[in-house]
Amino acid sequence: QGMDSTLHYIHNDSDLSTNSSFSPEEERKSKVQDVVPQALLDQYLSMTDPSRAQTVDTEIAKHCAYSLPGVALTLGRQNWHCLKDTYETLASDMQWKVRRTLAFSIHELAVILGDQLTAGDLVPVFNGFLKDLDEVRIGVLKHLHDFLKLLHVDKRREYLYQLQEFLVTDNSRNWRFRAELAEQLILLLDLYSARDIYDYLRPIAFSLCADKVSSVRWISYKLVSEMVKKLYMASTPTFVIDLMNELVEKFCRCHKWSGRQTFVFICQ
């Protein structure tokens, strides 16, 4: 059911081939370019054909996904129309390994395509990966900063509401997921305003500071200290004062020794 909802989200419950307004002849012409021999590109694009995958190699779609950023770089952004359908087909592949491969490289593809094509063609796929299995989500999480920094400021702010969702994983023992989130949040501090940091990133940081796994907590201490530094440099002193008061109240005066120890580590 989870898989079906993901595919529904990515595909909007419509088949890409039937949704096309092109005739078969126009569809073929839309994939013509002059950078590499056309037969070579046609051979690559045919790798996503389900019949070929079943009869030739079950791993062929994964190899196709792995090579796609290189193909896109070779063809250039002006020929992205040749690869767009293939990319969307791979992004909705039933094998999570194929989607995982794309999730790990979507930030590289965004650099190749530029902000306009990224906003139009990659953001919907990125949003689909955010709701996917943990094995796929970790791909976008590891390069969250790299992808979000390429988006327009307004578009970037929309993801503030979704960062909280990274605290929830398929397996609660997957502490590396939360550790990676803390690492990414340190980088994301440069992309958001003082108010956004205080309103959205601060609650996540405090939650990570109380994590059951020490490795997650250690990274979170650095995150909070960087947050204090960032808010201290802001033009409005209110945010850093409120944050410091909260640190004192929540950790320094905590009735548990571990909470008081956390305060010392953050100060350190």
From TrEMBL:
PANTHER family cross-referenced by the UniProt entry: SERINE/THREONINE-PROTEIN PHOSPHATASE PP2A 65 KDA REGULATORY SUBUNIT, SERINE_THREONINE-PROTEIN PHOSPHATASE 4 REGULATORY SUBUNIT 1
Region (Disordered): 10-31
Organism: Calcarius ornatus (Chestnut-collared longspur)
Signal peptide: none
One Gene Ontology cellular component: cytoplasm
Molecular function per GO: protein phosphatase regulator activity
Keyword Lyase attached: no
Protein name per its UniProtKB record: PP4R1 phosphatase
Keywords assigned: Repeat
